[in-house]
Amino acid sequence: MLYDPTERRIRSFVTRAGRLSTAQARALEELGPKFMIGYAKAPLDYAAAFGRSAAVVLEIGFGMGDTTSHIAKLMPEKDFIGVEVHTPGVGSLLKQIGEQELTNLRVIQHDAVEVLRDMIPDQSLAGVHIFFPDPWHKARHNKRRLIQPEFVAKLCAKIAPGGYLHLATDWEDYAIQMLEVLSAEPQLQNTAEGYAPQPSYRPLTKFENRGLKLGHGVWDLVFTKR
Questions:
Q1: In a domain? residue 7
Q2: What are the binding positions for substrate in this chain (predicted)?
Q3: What range defines the domain where residue 166 resides?
Protein backbone atom coordinates (compact mmCIF):
# COMPACT_ATOMS: atom_id res chain seq x y z
CA MET A 1 0.00 0.00 0.00
CA LEU A 2 1.30 3.43 -0.88
CA TYR A 3 0.41 5.26 2.29
CA ASP A 4 2.41 7.91 4.08
CA PRO A 5 2.08 6.95 7.76
CA THR A 6 2.55 10.56 8.87
CA GLU A 7 -0.15 12.00 6.62
CA ARG A 8 -2.41 9.00 5.93
CA ARG A 9 -2.61 9.80 2.23
CA ILE A 10 -2.20 7.63 -0.84
CA ARG A 11 0.97 8.37 -2.79
CA SER A 12 0.91 8.60 -6.58
CA PHE A 13 4.34 7.01 -7.04
CA VAL A 14 6.43 4.04 -6.01
CA THR A 15 10.05 4.74 -5.13
CA ARG A 16 12.24 2.57 -7.35
CA ALA A 17 15.91 2.19 -6.54
CA GLY A 18 17.09 2.15 -10.16
CA ARG A 19 20.69 1.93 -11.25
CA LEU A 20 22.85 5.04 -11.43
CA SER A 21 25.22 5.30 -14.36
CA THR A 22 28.73 6.54 -13.70
CA ALA A 23 27.90 9.83 -15.45
CA GLN A 24 24.72 10.31 -13.40
CA ALA A 25 26.57 9.62 -10.15
CA ARG A 26 29.26 12.11 -11.13
CA ALA A 27 26.63 14.74 -11.96
CA LEU A 28 24.97 14.25 -8.58
CA GLU A 29 28.29 14.68 -6.82
CA GLU A 30 29.63 17.57 -8.85
CA LEU A 31 26.50 19.51 -9.89
CA GLY A 32 24.06 18.56 -7.15
CA PRO A 33 25.40 21.09 -4.62
CA LYS A 34 24.87 23.95 -7.09
CA PHE A 35 21.66 23.00 -8.86
CA MET A 36 19.70 20.98 -6.29
CA ILE A 37 17.44 22.57 -3.71
CA GLY A 38 16.88 20.65 -0.49
CA TYR A 39 13.35 20.05 0.72
CA ALA A 40 12.38 22.31 3.60
CA LYS A 41 9.15 23.21 5.36
CA ALA A 42 9.59 26.86 4.43
CA PRO A 43 8.63 28.99 1.42
CA LEU A 44 11.28 28.97 -1.29
CA ASP A 45 12.91 32.29 -2.18
CA TYR A 46 13.07 32.05 -5.97
CA ALA A 47 15.35 35.05 -6.39
CA ALA A 48 17.85 33.58 -3.94
CA ALA A 49 17.66 30.14 -5.59
CA PHE A 50 18.27 31.46 -9.12
CA GLY A 51 20.17 34.67 -8.46
CA ARG A 52 17.61 36.73 -10.35
CA SER A 53 13.90 37.55 -10.57
CA ALA A 54 12.03 35.80 -13.39
CA ALA A 55 8.81 33.91 -14.09
CA VAL A 56 8.98 30.45 -12.49
CA VAL A 57 7.58 27.22 -13.97
CA LEU A 58 7.29 24.05 -11.88
CA GLU A 59 7.55 20.60 -13.46
CA ILE A 60 6.29 17.63 -11.46
CA GLY A 61 7.78 14.21 -12.24
CA PHE A 62 10.33 14.95 -14.95
CA GLY A 63 11.51 11.36 -15.47
CA MET A 64 14.96 11.42 -17.06
CA GLY A 65 14.73 15.16 -17.67
CA ASP A 66 15.05 15.32 -21.47
CA THR A 67 11.89 17.39 -21.91
CA THR A 68 12.75 19.57 -18.92
CA SER A 69 16.18 20.53 -20.22
CA HIS A 70 14.80 21.10 -23.74
CA ILE A 71 12.18 23.56 -22.49
CA ALA A 72 14.59 25.33 -20.13
CA LYS A 73 17.04 25.85 -22.99
CA LEU A 74 14.23 27.06 -25.23
CA MET A 75 13.05 29.64 -22.66
CA PRO A 76 16.11 31.21 -21.02
CA GLU A 77 13.98 34.14 -19.82
CA LYS A 78 12.10 31.82 -17.43
CA ASP A 79 13.29 29.83 -14.43
CA PHE A 80 12.33 26.16 -14.01
CA ILE A 81 12.07 23.92 -10.96
CA GLY A 82 11.90 20.19 -11.63
CA VAL A 83 10.64 17.83 -8.93
CA GLU A 84 11.39 14.10 -9.14
CA VAL A 85 11.82 11.33 -6.58
CA HIS A 86 13.91 8.87 -8.59
CA THR A 87 17.68 9.28 -8.25
CA PRO A 88 18.71 8.15 -11.77
CA GLY A 89 16.36 10.75 -13.26
CA VAL A 90 17.79 13.45 -11.01
CA GLY A 91 21.32 12.46 -12.01
CA SER A 92 20.32 12.44 -15.68
CA LEU A 93 18.87 15.96 -15.54
CA LEU A 94 21.88 17.30 -13.62
CA LYS A 95 24.12 15.80 -16.31
CA GLN A 96 22.12 17.65 -18.98
CA ILE A 97 22.29 20.89 -17.00
CA GLY A 98 26.07 20.60 -17.05
CA GLU A 99 26.33 19.61 -20.71
CA GLN A 100 23.96 22.34 -21.91
CA GLU A 101 25.19 24.97 -19.43
CA LEU A 102 21.67 25.67 -18.19
CA THR A 103 21.54 28.31 -15.49
CA ASN A 104 17.75 28.61 -15.25
CA LEU A 105 16.97 25.15 -13.90
CA ARG A 106 16.93 23.78 -10.36
CA VAL A 107 16.05 20.30 -9.07
CA ILE A 108 14.24 19.14 -5.95
CA GLN A 109 14.33 15.42 -5.13
CA HIS A 110 11.26 14.96 -2.99
CA ASP A 111 7.54 14.14 -3.02
CA ALA A 112 5.92 16.85 -5.16
CA VAL A 113 2.81 17.03 -2.96
CA GLU A 114 4.94 18.05 0.01
CA VAL A 115 7.07 20.42 -2.07
CA LEU A 116 3.93 22.12 -3.34
CA ARG A 117 2.45 22.38 0.14
CA ASP A 118 5.53 23.53 2.03
CA MET A 119 7.88 25.29 -0.42
CA ILE A 120 5.88 26.94 -3.19
CA PRO A 121 4.38 30.33 -2.22
CA ASP A 122 0.75 30.97 -3.14
CA GLN A 123 0.10 32.59 -6.53
CA SER A 124 3.81 32.53 -7.38
CA LEU A 125 4.07 30.21 -10.40
CA ALA A 126 3.82 31.28 -14.03
CA GLY A 127 3.09 27.69 -15.02
CA VAL A 128 3.02 24.03 -14.03
CA HIS A 129 4.01 21.10 -16.28
CA ILE A 130 2.98 17.49 -15.58
CA PHE A 131 3.91 15.27 -18.50
CA PHE A 132 3.00 11.57 -18.64
CA PRO A 133 2.35 10.97 -14.93
CA ASP A 134 1.97 7.34 -13.86
CA PRO A 135 -1.43 6.29 -15.27
CA TRP A 136 -2.09 3.60 -12.65
CA HIS A 137 -4.08 1.96 -15.43
CA LYS A 138 -5.71 -0.82 -13.40
CA ALA A 139 -9.14 0.36 -12.27
CA ARG A 140 -8.47 -0.55 -8.64
CA HIS A 141 -5.38 1.69 -8.72
CA ASN A 142 -7.02 4.75 -10.31
CA LYS A 143 -7.30 6.41 -6.89
CA ARG A 144 -3.50 6.68 -6.86
CA ARG A 145 -3.43 8.94 -9.89
CA LEU A 146 -1.94 12.34 -9.22
CA ILE A 147 -4.58 14.35 -11.07
CA GLN A 148 -7.49 14.45 -8.63
CA PRO A 149 -9.77 17.39 -7.71
CA GLU A 150 -8.09 18.05 -4.36
CA PHE A 151 -4.59 18.13 -5.85
CA VAL A 152 -5.62 20.34 -8.78
CA ALA A 153 -7.18 22.83 -6.33
CA LYS A 154 -3.85 22.93 -4.45
CA LEU A 155 -2.01 23.49 -7.72
CA CYS A 156 -4.33 26.37 -8.58
CA ALA A 157 -3.55 28.06 -5.28
CA LYS A 158 0.13 28.19 -6.28
CA ILE A 159 -0.38 29.48 -9.84
CA ALA A 160 -0.56 33.23 -10.38
CA PRO A 161 -3.63 34.65 -12.17
CA GLY A 162 -2.99 34.30 -15.90
CA GLY A 163 -0.59 31.41 -15.31
CA TYR A 164 -1.16 28.01 -16.84
CA LEU A 165 -1.34 24.27 -16.16
CA HIS A 166 -0.12 21.94 -18.93
CA LEU A 167 -0.75 18.20 -18.66
CA ALA A 168 0.00 15.44 -21.15
CA THR A 169 -0.77 11.71 -21.14
CA ASP A 170 -0.78 8.79 -23.53
CA TRP A 171 -3.54 6.91 -21.67
CA GLU A 172 -6.95 7.85 -23.07
CA ASP A 173 -8.96 7.07 -19.94
CA TYR A 174 -6.56 9.18 -17.87
CA ALA A 175 -6.90 11.98 -20.45
CA ILE A 176 -10.67 11.80 -20.00
CA GLN A 177 -10.29 11.98 -16.22
CA MET A 178 -7.85 14.91 -16.51
CA LEU A 179 -10.25 16.84 -18.72
CA GLU A 180 -13.15 16.20 -16.34
CA VAL A 181 -11.16 17.24 -13.26
CA LEU A 182 -9.67 20.39 -14.81
CA SER A 183 -12.97 21.43 -16.39
CA ALA A 184 -14.71 21.13 -13.01
CA GLU A 185 -12.16 23.37 -11.26
CA PRO A 186 -13.69 26.88 -11.15
CA GLN A 187 -10.29 28.59 -10.99
CA LEU A 188 -9.28 27.17 -14.39
CA GLN A 189 -10.26 27.97 -17.95
CA ASN A 190 -9.57 25.69 -20.92
CA THR A 191 -7.52 27.22 -23.74
CA ALA A 192 -9.09 24.81 -26.25
CA GLU A 193 -12.34 23.04 -27.00
CA GLY A 194 -11.44 19.89 -25.10
CA TYR A 195 -7.86 18.73 -25.67
CA ALA A 196 -5.23 21.23 -26.80
CA PRO A 197 -2.88 21.02 -29.78
CA GLN A 198 0.57 19.98 -28.62
CA PRO A 199 2.36 23.23 -27.66
CA SER A 200 5.48 23.78 -29.75
CA TYR A 201 7.72 23.93 -26.67
CA ARG A 202 6.93 20.34 -25.61
CA PRO A 203 9.16 17.99 -27.63
CA LEU A 204 8.18 14.48 -28.64
CA THR A 205 10.00 11.92 -26.51
CA LYS A 206 11.46 8.74 -28.03
CA PHE A 207 8.81 6.73 -26.18
CA GLU A 208 6.06 9.03 -27.45
CA ASN A 209 7.34 8.85 -31.04
CA ARG A 210 7.35 5.08 -30.87
CA GLY A 211 3.79 5.07 -29.55
CA LEU A 212 2.55 7.44 -32.23
CA LYS A 213 4.01 5.20 -34.94
CA LEU A 214 2.07 2.32 -33.43
CA GLY A 215 -1.11 4.38 -33.56
CA HIS A 216 -1.26 5.29 -29.89
CA GLY A 217 -2.74 8.66 -28.98
CA VAL A 218 -1.28 11.50 -26.93
CA TRP A 219 -3.46 14.10 -25.28
CA ASP A 220 -2.35 17.58 -24.13
CA LEU A 221 -4.44 19.77 -21.84
CA VAL A 222 -3.62 23.45 -21.32
CA PHE A 223 -5.70 25.46 -18.85
CA THR A 224 -5.13 28.98 -17.56
CA LYS A 225 -5.76 30.34 -14.07
CA ARG A 226 -8.58 32.84 -13.95
A1: no
A2: 138, 170, 205-208
A3: 40-225
